Amino acid sequence: MENMTPSSKNYRSELVIAWASLTAEARSLVESLSERCADGLAMELHRLATAGTDRNYRFGRCRGFIEAAGQRDELTYQQASDLLDYCSRIDLNRRAMERQSK
């Protein structure tokens, strides 16, 4: 099993890819969060877009990061809604791709 702790090279490489995969709008919202929360959410959004069987788990993790940031007043209601919409679009696109591949 790969070492995926935040200090590992694999984690840092995946984190760079995760940040690069965000749209400009999503990136600006995620960048406004505390560093730890921002990195975690960016990683989970990337994993949501690329994950197969654990998509519901990843969606829940994304929602958890967004809700926690909202409770810490790092996001307004509108920003949190926009990020949740972004998560939903990723999830719906992933489901559509899976249906097409069957």
The DSSP helix count reads: 5
End-to-end C-alpha gap: 29 Å
Count of DSSP E strands? Answer: 0
Order of helices and strands: HHHHH
Q: Topology of this structure?
A:
Elements (H helix, E strand, L loop, with lengths): L8 H13 L2 H8 L3 H16 L4 H17 L5 H25 L1
Helix pairs in contact: 1-3, 3-4, 3-5, 4-5
Keywords: Plasmid
Organism: Pseudomonas frederiksbergensis
Protein name: Four helix bundle protein
Give me a quick take on this structure.
With 102 residues, the protein is mainly α. It has helices at residues 9-21, 24-31, 35-50, 55-71, 77-101.
Label this structure with key terms.
102 residues; 77% helix; mainly alpha; globular
Fold and architecture overview:
The protein has 102 residues and is mainly alpha-helical. The protein has one domain. The protein contains five helices and no strands. It has helices spanning 9-21, 24-31, 35-50, 55-71, 77-101. Helix 1 crosses helix 3 (35-50), helix 3 packs antiparallel against helix 4 and helix 4 (55-71) packs antiparallel against helix 5 (77-101). The chain is globular, with a radius of gyration of 14 Å. It starts with 8 loop residues before the first helix and ends with a helix. The mean pLDDT is 89.
